[in-house]
Amino acid sequence: MSRARQLGKLFVADMKLMFREKQVWFWNIFFPIILMVIFMLIFGSSSENFKAKIALVETSANATSDRLEQELRNVPVFEWKSELPVDQAQADKWIENKDVDAVIVLPATEDVKTLQLIFNKETEMSATSQAITGIIGQFIQQVNWNEAGVTPTYSFDVSSVSSGSEDLEYADFLMTGQIALAIAQGGLFGMVGMVEMRRKGLLKRLKMTPVRLGLLGLSGMIVRFILGIFQICVLTAIGSGFFGVNLHIDIATLIVAFFVGAVTFNAMGYMFSSFSKTMEAYMGFANIASFLMMFLSGIFFPTSGFPDWLKTVSEVLPLTYFVQGMRDGMAYGSGIGSSDYWMGIAILGGWGLFTYAIGALVYRKTKVEAR
């Protein structure tokens, strides 16, 4: 039987197995959707919608506390737990139970000129707490200027630029990174069937037939490739329909990045399966690779803030270049003519060739029966 016919029959068999296996549907379709929705809800919301729930404490009414309370009530991003100030005991209870983001204690006497800001220790380093601290700092500065009768000479205006379209937002980059992660994990974890076949002795039987084990791995990669296209369509539809992401798609850039990335991560999964004689070993390899790359490849935050040594690690990982390629094709709408893009694709492809060659070599040279 020719290699083409072998590949065709293996592909049909892998497709049937995929549709029959419920775990495939969960881990490759529903789990990426759940993961993306959670992270989009946490990180994808616009800063324009930022609100902080505040409790106000006034131990004794005085002219200073009344004036500061009136000014604080005008801060638009503050939502007040109560319309009137409360005592310290009630405020402490709210902050301990995390019913409020912060407590502001007004001066106890007219001569005291200090506001006290209280956070829960578990959340004092959160983004919300840091934002509240900055807002109160600006508020105090403005009050001091008003007290001194000084009109500020200088001010600043905040804006942002992008190498892509001006309507790009953080949610767009987060969603495209999540799509790349879903496809990568589909490849890393997608060859678990190979390990199961080894455990049951099927690989040993296949090795005694004319079937080439390299074609068995290649057919699995093609199935995952088709599944990856489905993942892109579903996750993009959810991102656009429910989170309002703005996409600027360049078809050529997207196709090249997706094809090379999908093949690469399936090849990595194939290599892990060649080393694994048990399900636990395979899942260990895949989990280590997945979690290492998940947080070091710029999916949730840029790698520019990493220490220099960690940037070097990030620049070696294949997921870094896959995320960049997918963002070029889906968010920036360009990249096919960029030398940086092709350099990333070359590194990504090199990982694929290297890992597939190792997997095929191991399967050909070692025993495939389970211990």
Topology:
Elements: H1 3-20, H2 22-43, E1 52-57, H3 63-72, E2 78-80, H4 88-96, E3 102-105, E4 116-118, H5 127-148, H6 170-189, H7 192-199, H8 202-207, H9 213-243, H10 251-275, H11 279-296, H12 308-316, H13 318-332, H14 339-365
Parallel strand pairs: 1-2, 1-3
Antiparallel strand pairs: 3-4
Helix pairs in contact: 1-9, 2-6, 2-9, 6-9, 6-10, 6-11, 6-13, 9-10, 10-11, 10-13, 10-14, 13-14
What's a quick, concise take on this entry?
The chain is mainly alpha-helical and 371 residues long.
Approximately how much beta-strand content do the residues carry? under 5%
The helix content is 55-70%
Major beta sheet, specifics?
Answer: 4 strands, mixed
| Number of domain modules | 2
Averaging pLDDT over every residue, what do you get? Answer: 84
Shape: elongated
- Gyration radius (Cα, Å) is 28 Å
Structural class: mainly alpha
Number of helices: 14
First-residue to last-residue Cα separation: 31 Å
State the total count of DSSP E strands: 4
Order of SSEs:
HHEHEHEEHHHHHHHHHH
Low-confidence stretches: none
Order of strands, main sheet, comes to 2-1-3-4
